Amino acid sequence: MPNYIETAAVIQSELDTAATAASATGWMEANAGRVKYNGGKEIKIPKITTDAMADYDRNNGFVEGGVTLSYETREMTQDRGRGFTLDPMDVDESNYAAEISAVMGEFQRDHVIPEIDAYRISSIATDVIGAKAAGMVKYNYTPGDEGTDALKKIKEGITAVRESGYSGNLTIQIESRMLMELELILANRVRYVDIIKNGVTTKVPAIDECPLIPTTSDRMVTAITTYDGTTEGQKKGGWKKAEDALSINFIIIPTTAPLAVSKLDNFRIFDPQTYQKAHAWHADYRRYHDLWVADNKLKLIYLSIKDKEPTSSTE
Fold it and tell me: Which one, out of 14, 67, 152, 174, has a CA that is 20 to 30 A from the CA of 105?
């Protein structure tokens, strides 16, 4: 008899790897490498503190320092999922794992990854706008408009981040049409760099050694609305751009600033003899995810918005 628990664990691992690799914001998960997760919505984020520098003594050597490792518990606010039922006539029992994996992979590519990307980008944008750091949010620029220069806009953003005191690595989340304008300006002079997401290396264009991560316009928004899957008008599930959301051209982010976590929790497979609601194969997909940016890092993030500044907000 097949071991469905072991099969589910293998599929779960494959889906998690694929989710990070295919996500436009998958690079943000690298900052969560030492996060502890044991199932459910809670994660534990490590915090390390050490004593400061001391004088070296030629006779006695080093002054012994103290190290404290503690964990801060956070809850992921996004608890999303779906259950899928497959008729036995459509699933070959000898190859059920591949067929269920294919269905879950399609669901993840078409619905899960875009929603996670949009959530992360909108969360960062909302927090940056709310931080009101001088000169770090610019409105009313449409790529390709007459008299505008997409390269200059990017350079101005990088300069603003550097002038804010940050000299480390930057990553640029960029809307696809904005990237196209850059490529037209640079013609054959576009440079490429490697980025690694969950062990998968991908080449992306770069400006001033800052990777440009192409992102579709539907995900580059300042707010989204998610559907609960049960309310009338929301039964299809998923998400959409919020009514009052603005469209984003690009976000310049210190690479270490966002801490993103995404976990597929306890993926389960039930065979037709076990599933109670119908004589059918059934698979449960439940994913927790969230993103955090420390308050002191928000002032280092630069945001370019296509729309005019709302009259109720200030830059």
Answer: 174
Per-residue confidence (pLDDT) for residue 72, from 0 to 100: 87
Q: Please give the structure tokens belonging to residue 215.
A: 């992102």
Write down the pLDDT at residue 6: 87
Report yes or no: 185 and 149 within 8 Å, Cβ to Cβ.
Answer: yes
C-alpha distances in Å from residue 54, one per residue of 59, 68, 266: 15, 17, 48
pLDDT digits (tens, 9 = 90+) for 142-157: 998 888 899 999 999 9
Nearest one of 23, 73, 22 to 47, comparing CA atoms: 73
Q: Are 121 and 217 in contact (CB under 8 A)?
A: no
Angstrom distance (rounded) from CA 180 to CA 186: 10
Question: How far apart are the C-alpha atoms of 77 and 290, rounded to whole Å?
Answer: 6
- The count of other CB atoms within 10 Å of the CB of residue 261 is 20
Q: Is the pLDDT of residue 165 over 80?
A: yes
Characterize 55-83 residue by residue with b for buried, 16 or more Cβ atoms within 10 angstroms of its Cβ, and e for exposed. eeeeeeeeeeeeeeeeeeebebebebeee
